[in-house]
Amino acid sequence: MDRIPQLKWTLVAGGQSLFNDSELAATILDILISMCALYPSRDQVTGAIIRPFPKIKRLLNDPTCLPHLVQLLLTFDPSLVEKIVTLLNTLVQDNPLLAQFYMSGVFYFILMYTGSNILPIGHFLKYTHLAQAFRSDEQQQSGEKKDLFFRSILGHLLPEAMICYLENHGPEKFAQMFLGKYR
Question: Which residues contact 120 (CB under 8 A, 6 or more apart)?
Answer without folding.
Answer: 82, 85, 86, 89
